[in-house]
Structure formats: structure tokens, C-alpha cells
Design goal:
CATH class: Mainly Alpha
Radius of gyration: 18 Å
Pfam families: COQ9
Organism: Roseococcus pinisoli
Protein name: COQ9 family protein
CATH superfamily: Tetracycline Repressor, domain 2
Distance between the termini: 57 Å
CATH architecture: Orthogonal Bundle
CATH topology: Tetracycline Repressor, domain 2
Shape: elongated
Helix content: over 70%
Number of helices: 9
InterPro entries: COQ9_C, Ubiq_biosynth_COQ9
Largest sheet: none
Number of strands: 0
Structural class: mainly alpha
């Protein structure tokens, strides 16, 4: 069984039963493995499983982006499209994401939540073709972390918005960003 298959089995259960060690063990059993192997697959337990899932979503987003010609788009449009691809990848598992966000929002799990969001922001910038190696590397990712967190929370509202409503919310967030100063020759 591949790691991706195991993560998908966990996500399928977590959407209904939440992110718990019991769910992780049951997913292992569902895939024909002994639940005692839990620490081999997820040494950090539930948080490790959530982080692995977010990494898988980021990989799926990057693969979907590679199949498109994003180079033809300006950078803001690339970022918007990549966030859209990421939301589309998570759409079937919105309840699992809602439950993961609840786990990551706990004070003792906030560092893991920040790691997940930061890794996703970085994956989005890399998929958009960012090759910066200066201070802008940090500012671009920090800005996107805030936007990505806001968009994800909007998308997870109790009365779920459509993808179009979520993208409209994203457009408003992107329009509020300060425009870079023109370069002086």
C-alpha cells in the first residue's frame, strides 16, 4: 500500500469520525495492515497524518498545475488558479478539512497548523514559478499564508460557499494587496 492510499483511507474516515488515533488505526485495518504499525506510518500521530494529507494536496495541486499553461498568466492570476486547484483537490474532503482545521486550531497544535499553511504557500509559489532567493521570498510567502488561511476559513464556513463564491472572496483579498512600486531605471 502506498502512503497516498493510506492517507486517502484516513481522510475518508476523518471526514466522518474526526482526526483521532482510533481513526488512524481503523484506516490501517481498512487497508489490511496491523494497527500496531501506526507509529511506523505516522510517528507524529494525528498531526503527522494531517500534515501528510496537506502535503498530498499540495502535490496534487502541483501536478494539476503542470498540466496547464500557467506561464501564460500573470503572477496574480497564477496564484489565484493554484489556490483554485488546491480547493478543487480538497472539495470532496471538505468535512475532513473542517475537522483538521479544528484540530490545528487548538493552542498546542498551532505550530503544526502554521507549518501546514506555510508549506502550502511555498508549494503555491513554487508551482507559480517563483525563483526568488532574496527578502521577497519571505514576504511573498508570509502574505500568501494570510490569504490562504482566510480563504480556507471562508471555504469551511458552516453554510459552505460555492467555489465561485470562494474565488470571489479570494479576488477581494488579492485586490487589497499593495501594488509594487514601479521600478526606476
Amino acid at each position: 500500500m502506498s502512503e497516498a492510499e493510506l492517507i486517502r483511507a484516513v481522510v475518508a474516515r476523518a471526514g466522518h469520525d474526526g482526526w483521532t488515533p482510533a481513526v488512524l488505526r481503523q484506516a490501517l485495518e481498512d487497508r489490511g495492515e496491523a494497527p500496531e504499525l501506526l507509529s511506523n506510518h505516522f510517528p507524529r500521530g494525528v498531526l503527522g497524518a494531517i500534515e501528510a494529507w496537506m502535503g498530498l494536496v499540495d502535490q496534487e495541486m502541483a501536478v494539476a498545475a503542470a498540466e496547464e499553461d500557467l506561464a501564460a498568466l500573470r503572477t496574480p492570476a497564477r496564484i489565484r488558479r493554484l489556490i483554485e486547484l488546491r480547493l478543487q483537490a480538497m472539495e470532496p474532503d471538505r468535512d475532513a478539512m473542517r475537522r483538521a482545521a479544528a484540530v490545528l486550531a487548538l493552542p498546542w497544535n498551532m505550530a503544526a497548523g502554521l507549518r501546514c499553511t506555510s508549506a502550502s504557500a511555498s508549494a503555491i509559489w513554487y508551482a507559480a514559478g517563483d525563483e526568488s532567493a532574496d527578502f521577497s521570498w519571505y514576504t511573498r510567502r508570509a502574505t500568501l499564508v494570510g490569504i490562504l488561511a482566510a480563504v480556507t476559513l471562508f471555504w469551511l464556513r458552516p453554510n459552505p460557499p460555492t467555489l465561485e463564491e470562494t474565488l470571489s472572496f479570494l479576488d477581494r483579498r488579492l485586490s487589497e494587496l499593495p501594488k509594487p512600486a514601479p521600478k526606476v531605471a
